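so my prof wants the structure for this chain in the tokens format not the other one, which i didnt know existed until like an hour ago. anyway here's the sequence
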Amino acid sequence: MPDCDVEVILLVNNGENAPTEIVERNQKTQEEALAFSKKESTENIQFYSLLHADLPAKHAGVGLARKIGMDEAAYRLESVGRSDGVIICYDADSNCSPNYLQEIDRHFKQFPKTTACSIYYEHPTSGDSFPEEVYTNIVDYELHLRYYVNALRWAGFPHAYQTIGSSMAVRCDAYQQQGGMNRKKAGEDFYFLHKFIPLGNFSELHSTMVIPSPRPSHRVPFGTGKAVQDMLDAKEELHKTYAVEIFCDLAVFLDRISELSGIAHHSAKAGQLEKMDTFLADLPSSVRDFLVAVSFTEKVMEIAGNTSTEKAFLNRFFQWFTAFLVLKFVHFARDEFYPNVEIGVAAKELGKRLWSQSYAEKLVGGSNLDLLGEYRRWDRFGK
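here's what i got, hopefully its the right format
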């Protein structure tokens, strides 16, 4: 237990069109949870179980379930005058380190300006709970996740963070100020956290660990469960990821972003447009073609018209050039210029850029599990 009171809210839920066996199982789960709550709740930790058995079919899913639970948490914190309290997201099939609650409490006390944070995670890569191929596939999927965020960071994108729904926490007041959780059926965590990341005071917590389940799932249109299921269905593309060349091109662009403020604030409109054309012409083709497609010049001019300093310009620029737009660029570059490559090949290529050449060369003959271990160490300890 941490040095604060804790409430655990369990959200048992299903859509209004769920099969009878799901409805009955959830009712049994609720009864068991209520009995558990009555027996195990103490002065310092309380358990609450809420049953929502008829969520509208149009919205029923992980986003709405998280929203109901987090809204309830916000209400309960406000009712006791703790608008600075912390709301933590967790999945019922996850595990965690014993110091999980202690470290989250310590983190938000140590960094009082933190509005939200991403908590370190590792999927299980072996065990008896799933067939061996599930563990093999989750290795590739997690390696893809870590590779992507590290590639963005290496390229210079300032808002590159892991966004895993079972591994995130947010302050109650910040949660309300940003409009709460969304109702998306997948990717709700990505969209939720990227409301906080560009605002600053977002942090990472590495001193504890969440262990999300690697189980396959047909319930979501994308995400971990869907990816593992697709891999099991022998969709070879899922064992690939984005080519390093995409991030090399992105790095060229991001390295020159500071030039844009001076160009856009040029005194003569003709001079602005001429310099913008030259700026675009000097970029890699993948970046230039994408920026033209998203009306880059017009957007930069609009941003310049609403800012007067380079700092303000850059801040506003990255409110437009968001993680979502970056992902759109990555997909554009993949489709038009650089096809996907094997995840192990890409991870090794990026490793040569992240780490010393001699160290990276030692990984050339390693397995994807070995590579994942290196990326985990790098993400958690920076070495």
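also thought this was worth mentioning. The CA atoms of residues 131 and 215 lie 10 Å apart.
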